C-alpha cells in the first residue's frame, strides 16, 4: 500500500496538470473565438447589416463571462435599430449602465425610441463597481493633468515636476496591481482604459512600461480588451531610446485633415508585419480596420476602428490637404493612403 502511494500521487498530479492545461487551452480558444465573432459583427455593421451583426454578438457573449463594453454598446445600438423587445434592450443596457458607472449617455434618443422606459429601470439598478478603486484611478489622472497643465509643452524649467508626478502615479498604480491582482471593467468600469492609457503612455516617456507585465496575461484570459491594450503598447515605438520590445500595430497612423482620412505607413511590406502583430492579440487585419474607422467617423453611434488624430496646420488647411493628396497620387509620398469623407 505504501509503495503504491507515490505512484498514485504522481498519477493524480499528472491528471490535475493535464486538466489545467486543457482548461487553459479551452479558455484561450474561447477568447480567440470571441474576437473572431465581434470582428465579423463589426464588418456587418459597416454594411448596415445590423441583424447579422446582432446575431454574431449574441454568440460571442456566450463565450466570455463578461463581454467587453464596446461590444455590448454596439450590440445595443444594433438592437435599437432593429427595434428589439424591451427585455433585450434592458438586458444590454444594464451592463452598459453598470460599466459606465451610472451613465445614460449610451442611449441615443434618435435611435432608441423607448429611452425613458429604459432609464426608469436603470435608475433602480445597483452599481456593482468598486467605487474606491475608481476614485483612486480618477485622482491619478487628475494629478497627471494638473502637472501637465502647469508645464505646457514640457518646458525644461518644469519638466522635473511632471517626472515627479509620473513616478508617484507609477508607484500608486503598482500598489493597485498588488492589491487587486487584476484590474478589469467589472470592478473599475469602462473608464479604466482611459486612465491606464494616460498612465501607461506618460510613463513610457521615462522608459517605464507599467502595463504589459500585468495586463497582457489578462488579455489572453479575456479579462482586458485587447483593442485597448494595443492602443497603449503601440506608443512604445515612439521611444526607441528606451529599448522597449515595441511593435507596430498601426494604432496611431490615422490622421484627418479637411474631411480626408490619411493612413500612414501602409505599404505592402509594412501591412504584412502589422497584420502579424495584430493577429497575436486576435485583432482584425489593417484593411478591415480602415473600413471600420471610416464607418465610425461617419456613424458616431458605434464604437470601432482607430483613434483618429486631427492634423494641425499653420496655413490653408484645404490647400495643404490637396497638396498632400497630389503627392500621394504622383508617388512622391509612398505608403500613405487617403479616403475622402465627403463628396464635395
Helix-strand makeup class: mainly alpha
Helical percent range? 55-70%
Could you tell me the number of beta strands? 4
Helical stretch tally:
14
Q: What does this 3D model show about the protein?
A:
With 344 residues, the protein is mainly α. Helices cover 60% and strands 4% of the residues. It has a 4-stranded mixed beta sheet with strand order 3-1-2-4. Helix 2 (50-61) packs antiparallel against helix 3 (69-81). The longest helix is centred in the first third of the chain and has 43 residues, at 4-46.
Task: Break the fold down into its secondary structure elements and pairings.
Blueprint: H1 4-46, H2 50-61, H3 69-81, H4 86-99, H5 115-122, H6 131-150, H7 159-180, H8 185-188, H9 191-204, H10 212-220, H11 226-233, E1 254-257, E2 260-263, H12 268-279, H13 286-298, E3 309-310, H14 317-329, E4 337-340
Parallel strand pairs: 1-3
Antiparallel strand pairs: 1-2, 2-4
Helix pairs in contact: 1-2, 2-3, 3-4, 6-7, 6-9, 9-11
Identify the notable features of this structure and list them briefly.
344 residues, mainly alpha, four-stranded mixed sheet, 4 strands
Please summarize what this structure is.
The protein has 344 residues and is mainly α. The protein has helices spanning 4-46, 50-61, 69-81, 86-99, 115-122, 131-150, 159-180, 185-188, 191-204, 212-220, 226-233, 268-279, 286-298, 317-329, and strands at residues 254-257, 260-263, 309-310, 337-340.
